[in-house]
């Protein structure tokens, strides 16, 4: 990964954490800020982010509208050389290249994760998801040991620092927090805070569980496409604010601009990379 693009990898070996939804919304948000953005879907079976943006293209044609759209493609190859070629092609001339990885152990997901500039791991507020990065004592809820995944990223960060002087900004994204019982949430927060000090990831707020995200998929629209969503309920406005806060806390380079309240045209042009 030698291009000037900033590589953002959304990775979690557990499914159901809102990874694809978050990846697509971040990609579109960056495009709304005027950046040139591309996204690679590394799950050729599900193709969730690819299908989301494909639906977005179809909506633009159907409604004859022009809204910010990342470049997008899916990796369905079976060798690392093919992935590297796709990365080189997709990263050419873009500011940000995002990766949506499968919710399972996958060698290609590991490859891009250990070479990311920003690694985003969405998790739900539960000890089931926490087990991905660490194990806790069943009585005290203190962290007993790192998981294999956390050790993998820890070692990758050390190797990156040794090789090129840079490191991976590992961001733990707490999605869907609103349904967690208060006492259990305190335990989770305490365990996450303890582990973040040991491993060095940042913890930021993510997206809540909302029906609107599932409803938007067929159209490919996002919470930022205000003009084309009709009248929004209060919960939808709150969802848009969550996304704004997420982008702010990611603290990506050159992405400090405020997200627009209207649909101003952005530099990124709708395009499917053949």
UniProtKB/TrEMBL annotation:
CDD domains: ParAB_family. SUPFAM superfamilies: P-loop containing nucleoside triphosphate hydrolases. Residues 254-274 are annotated as: Disordered. Pfam families: MipZ. It comes from the Bacteria. PANTHER family: COBQ_COBB_MIND_PARA NUCLEOTIDE BINDING DOMAIN-CONTAINING PROTEIN (PTHR13696:SF96), P-LOOP CONTAINING NUCLEOSIDE TRIPHOSPHATE HYDROLASE (PTHR13696). This is AAA family ATPase. It comes from Parasphingorhabdus flavimaris.
């Amino acid at each position: 990964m030698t291009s000037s693009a900033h590589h953002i990898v959304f990775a979690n070996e557990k499914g159901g954490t809102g990874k694809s939804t978050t990846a697509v919304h971040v990609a579109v948000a960056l495009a709304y800020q005027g950046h040139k953005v591309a996204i690679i879907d590394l799950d050729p079976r599900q193709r969730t982010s690819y299908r989301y943006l494909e639906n977005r293209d179809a909506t633009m044609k159907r409604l004859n509208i022009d809204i910010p759209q990342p470049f997008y493609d899916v990796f369905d190859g079976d060798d690392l050389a093919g992935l590297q070629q796709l990365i080189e092609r997709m990263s050419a001339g873009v500011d940000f290249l995002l990766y949506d990885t499968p919710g399972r152990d996958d060698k290609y997901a590991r490859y891009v994760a250990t070479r990311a500039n920003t690694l985003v791991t969405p998790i739900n507020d539960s000890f089931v998801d926490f087990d991905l990065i660490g194990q806790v004592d069943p009585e005290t809820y203190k962290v007993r040991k790192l998981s294999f995944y956390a050790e993998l990223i820890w070692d990758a960060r050390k190797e990156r620092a040794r090789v090129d002087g840079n490191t991976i900004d590992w961001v733990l994204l707490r999605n869907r927090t609103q349904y967690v019982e208060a006492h259990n949430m305190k335990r989770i927060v305490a365990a996450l805070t303890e582990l973040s000090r040991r491993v060095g990831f940042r913890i930021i707020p993510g997206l809540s569980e909302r029906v609107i995200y599932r409803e938007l998929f067929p159209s490919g629209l996002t919470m930022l496409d205000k003009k084309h969503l009709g009248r929004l309920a209060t919960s939808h406005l709150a969802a848009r604010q969550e996304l704004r806060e997420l982008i702010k806390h990611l603290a990506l380079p050159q992405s400090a601009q405020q997200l627009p309240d209207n649909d101003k045209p952005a530099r990124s042009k709708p395009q499917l990379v053949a």
